[in-house]
Design a protein that fits this description.
It is built from three helices and two strands, in the order ββααα. With 93 residues, it is mostly helical. The chain has one domain.
Length: 93
Amino acid sequence: MRAGLGSGKVSDGHEHPSGRPHSSRGHAISSTFLALIALLLLLAVVMVMQPVYARWLVFPFVVAGWVIALCLHEFGHAVVAYACGDTTVREKK
């Protein structure tokens, strides 16, 4: 719990700078990230259904999987930073 500066109020850190409560419902998964997942699944299906093309599709499959893993890794950094009190991203809005 943090005390507000000169306001006499106690804040739990979940308020918008305007004084309104913060809502996490406004966050959505990026359409680019969803497209990467769709691409990975499409490549996997094509490689299983058409093994003739698997040799040429394995590289884009691995790259798409690597990019998804990289995104999740960086998101993990953001979650830990936020849990440790770094709210600078929320304040940039």
